[in-house]
Amino acid sequence: MRIPTRIPTTFVRDTALVYGRCLRQSLRSPLALLFGLLMPLLYLLFFGPLLTRLPLGGRSSSWQVLVPGLLLQLGLFGAAFAGFGVIVEKAQGVVERMRVTPVSRPALLLGRVLRDATVIVFQAVLLVLAAMPLGLRAPLPGVLIGFGFVALLTVALGSLSYAAAMRVSTPQEFGPMINAVTMPSMLLSGLMLPISLGPAWLDVLSHLVPFRYLVDAMRDAYAGTYTSAHMLYGVLVAVAFATLAVTVGTRAFRTAGA
Question: What pTM was computed for the model?
Answer without folding.
Answer: 0.88
